[in-house]
Fold Nitrile hydratase-like protein.
Amino acid sequence: MSEQQAQTRKDIESRIIAKAWKNEAFKQELLTNPKPIIEQEFGVELPAELNVSVYEENSTSLYFVLPILPQIEGRELSEEELESVAGGFIGGLITIAVGVTPFTGDIVKATKKLTKK
């Protein structure tokens, strides 16, 4: 991928998930010591005080991450900005939150499976 093609958080998470599915040693390291893996894959250095957690879903577990509400320039976001941020964009710029917990499944399919009787 060229430097001109920006990778989104979703792109990087997808790459990490695919790598974990293909490489058991990588997956185990990601689960037991995620911070250096996330730093390497995102190409950033995370603050020392930041905790990073990665959870592996199974047939009876579904994890949903509620991101921190962003504050821009000391002001509250409008409804339109909140909707945009929820989709991963602020003013057209892609943001990467430093609290990363990959969601590895399709929430609709997972919810249907868990609620089927």
About this structure: Residues 21 and 27 are 7 Å apart (CA to CA). Confidence is low (pLDDT under 50) at residues 89-115. The first helix runs from residue 9 to 22.
